[in-house]
Design a protein that fits this description.
It is built from 30 helices and 2 strands. The chain is mostly helical and 549 residues long. The chain has a two-stranded antiparallel sheet.
């Protein structure tokens, strides 16, 4: 792997690895300086505390705090900060905060250590409360403080705590108003924060202000552009990144692998990085296998599997699960089962990938048998996706009673509250079996408002069995929820009406599509070619359907 020069980052107060070799065996006492017991001065206490802070067993130094409390010694600022660091390294946030609160005037350094401790432990709400307290003190935030706040904006996304609106922009404004001189660390934190909060345009403005663009910022910006489908902008940043590393290559490969239009470029970058002597990582292979799934290129997937064997990555659970999913999507269910059977260790994702593969390849019986083996023989607890796969398998096999039992067992046996996609799967299960009235009653009796997927499943079943009245109701509900993003609903309703001979109603639906500007997505057929998988465009567009041609 090639290395690049990265911006200097302030050393963390936390140990870098839990597997680091101890300085002394754990069954032997540390040789601490004992001056703090016989002559407890600020200097001797500070020296003794620093001794334990520098070891991999900092918690052994907490006896110094006990000694301080016992003799009634009043620590100065230096000793207090050393105690705070000691407790943070010992993962004792409560004691660290107690030391902080007992300081007459906490310094900026004390604030930063405490903020960093909250960030490391995911206590974002406490972190922001402490920052608010800092702003009302005589101390002012510095670049390190701002970088910690910006990192917190990324950690809190998706959590239970709601961040203040546009916090990253507020922090950016405070940086500009203060006398803080932005450095590479602060710029990097700003770019990453903007990207993680979906504001890629602002991230680019900060990026362009940097005199020296580092690879970390480039990687973050590439990921942001790719997530928004702005492939050309991502490629521009990639070309302008001169000191590339494997991570920036991975960002490009992952971004390309998400779309069928760009998945082949993912494979090209994967080849280029190896020509430049960059060794692929597990993340690289995960994205490349994903690209093979999108392209249904199982021959390339087999080559990737061979490389995984050579690099001794084949036994990784994530790689095994990804290969199973890829082979299943390519219709090579036997190859998927071969990978599954040779995995030395399996988790719920491995089992789910195999179950889902059987279900989607027309083997519902094998899917249900594997599900029972997973639960009974291997005692693996199914998750939401597992249930979705087995419910779908029940639908394809017409096993209504079995599907009902599985659906009811989700919350009863596994404390998994069914989600909207599980309700849609049950509607599809009942509809395929011809139980339209039971499917209707199920939808009406849902504990929450049915989503568009639920109504779409009911509409599909109505079209299958020729129930025009119920199909119209389901279609109208879809139009209320997503009038322009579900063109298939218009086509399904039109087809159901046409099958019933209601041509006036068919014309009304087609006219409604014209008025609302709804067009059906263009279809592709994939065929193998010498240069790789090739997409053949279906030229029959939705306006031809609307005009009855």
């Amino acid at each position: 792997m090639k290395h690049v020069k990265l911006p200097s980052i302030r050393p963390s107060i936390f140990p870098s690895s839990q597997n680091q070799r101890p300085l002394v065996p754990p069954n032997q006492p540390f040789p601490p300086p004992n001056d703090y017991i016989s002559r407890p001065t600020a200097v001797s206490l500070s020296t003794a505390l620093q001794h334990y802070i520098n070891t991999v067993f900092p918690s052994h130094g907490q006896k110094i705090h006990a000694h301080i409390l016992k003799i009634g010694f009043k620590p100065n600022t230096n000793v207090s900060i050393k105690l705070l660091i000691l407790h943070l390294k010992s993962c004792c946030l409560r004691y660290a905060r107690q030391i902080f609160d007992e300081m007459p005037q906490p310094t900026l350094s004390a604030h930063n250590y405490m903020i960093s401790g909250y960030l490391k432990n995911g206590k974002i709400e406490e972190l922001l409360n402490l920052v608010s307290r800092l702003t009302f003190s005589y101390e002012k935030p510095d670049g390190f403080t701002f970088s910690m706040i910006l990192k917190a904006t990324g950690c809190a996304s998706g959590g239970n705590f709601a961040l203040p609106y546009c916090l990253e922009k507020v922090v950016h404004a405070q940086i500009l108003r203060s006398n803080v001189e932005p450095d590479d660390v602060l710029y990097t934190a700003l770019v990453d924060s903007y990207v993680k909060n979906g504001k890629v345009g602002y991230a680019r403005r900060v990026f362009d202000l940097m005199l020296e663009k580092n690879v970390i910022c480039s990687t973050s910006l590439i990921s942001g552009y790719m997530s928004q489908g702005r492939v050309e902008d991502a490629e521009d940043i990639f070309r302008r990144t001169f000191e590339k590393d494997v991570v920036v290559f991975n960002a490009m490969i992952e971004g390309y692998s998400k779309s069928v239009e760009t998945a082949r470029r993912s494979l090209e970058v994967y080849i280029d990085m190896q020509r430049l002597n960059f060794r692929p990582t597990l993340s690289t292979f995960a994205s490349v296998i994903g690209a093979c799934s999108v392209l249904a290129a199982y021959e390339i997937g087999q080559q990737v599997e061979s490389q995984l064997v050579k690099l001794d990555f084949i036994n990784d659970i994530k790689m095994g699960s990804a290969l199973i999913d890829m082979y299943s999507k390519c219709g090579r269910i036997e190859d998927g089962r071969r990978v599954f059977d040779h995995m030395p260790e399996k988790n719920v994702f491995s089992w789910t990938s195999m179950i889902d593969g059987y279900g989607k390849n027309g083997n519902p019986v094998e899917a249900l048998e594997l599900f029972n083996r997973m639960k009974i023989e291997h005692l693996v607890k199914p998750n939401y996706v597992t249930f979705l796969s087995v419910l779908s398998a029940c639908g394809h096999a017409g096993l209504v009673a079995k599907g009902w039992r599985l659906f009811e067992s989700m919350e009863r046996d596994y404390m998994l509250k069914p989600r909207m996609e599980h309700y849609a799967c049950m509607v599809d299960l009942l509809g395929r079996a011809g139980s339209l009235q039971q499917a209707w009653d199920f939808v009406i009796g849902m504990p929450e408002k049915p989503g568009s997927d639920v109504w779409a499943a009911l509409l599909s079943s109505c079209q299958l069995h020729g129930d025009v009245e119920m199909a119209s109701i389901a279609a109208n509900e879809i139009f209320k929820l997503k009038s322009d993003s579900r063109p298939g609903a218009y086509v399904a309703l039109s087809n159901a009406l046409a099958a019933a001979g209601k041509w006036d109603s068919v014309s009304e639906v087609r006219q409604l599509m014209k008025v609302r500007g709804v067009s059906k997505d263009t279809g592709y057929s994939w065929v193998g070619a010498d240069g790789g998988p090739c997409g053949v465009l279906t030229r029959k567009r939705c306006n031809q359907i609307q005009e009855g041609r």
